[in-house]
Design a protein that fits this description.
The protein has helices at about 15-45, 55-80, 85-95, 95-100, 135-155, and strands at about 10, 105-110, 115-120, 125. By secondary structure, it is an alpha+beta fold. The protein has a 4-stranded mixed beta sheet with strand order 1-2-3-4. Strand 2 (about 105-110) and strand 3 form a beta hairpin. The radius of gyration is 24 Å and the shape is elongated.
């Protein structure tokens, strides 16, 4: 009798995690469209006059947040839709057929995004999530924080510091 080899198990990429991640991705898509709408309405409202430095930096911050969220969703989709066949195929693509044959289990991490093939000898290697996702997401996040902070400082510098006094006649 031929017995099928035991299939590698998943450590943390269970059904509940996938449902939660799908919900997070849905919220992320809503956030992206909302921020693009806010940015578009801000551009439409300010036509006919020159944009200030704070407005430009605020727009760049909003776009950076959109890019960060979009990159997270892109990487999360790679992790989320790993099925048994896809898992072994992703491990074979990342580490070669010889390494993939030694994989005894899988694990997933959602921050940073990572799908890991664990080898029975104790080693592991990453697969499935494109290598550019986490570094690009980090850069976009830092850019969003930096430009957002500078835009707030620039906006506050343009405000008058003393109260305006009006005299009645």
């Amino acid at each position: 009798m031929n017995e099928a080899p035991p299939s590698p198990t998943a450590d943390s990429a269970g059904e509940l995690d996938s449902i939660l991640l799908l919900f997070i991705c849905l919220i992320g898509v809503i956030v992206i469209f909302t921020l693009i709408g806010v940015l578009g309405s801000g551009i439409a409202r300010r036509t006919g006059r020159r944009k200030t430095r704070a407005e430009w930096l605020g727009g760049i911050a909003l776009l950076s947040v959109c890019v960060t969220v979009a990159l997270y969703i892109w990487g999360a989709l790679h992790v989320m839709f790993m099925e048994s066949y896809n898992k072994s195929e992703a491990c074979a693509k990342a580490g070669g057929a010889a390494k993939a044959a030694q994989v005894d289990r899988y694990s997933a991490s959602y921050f940073p995004l990572r799908f890991t093939c664990r080898i029975d000898e104790g080693g592991s290697y990453d697969a499935a999530v494109p290598g550019y996702v986490n570094p690009a997401m980090g850069i976009a996040f830092v850019l969003a924080i930096a430009t957002g902070a500078v835009s707030v400082v620039a906006r506050d510098q343009n405000r008058p510091t003393s109260p305006t006094i009006t005299r009645g006649r």
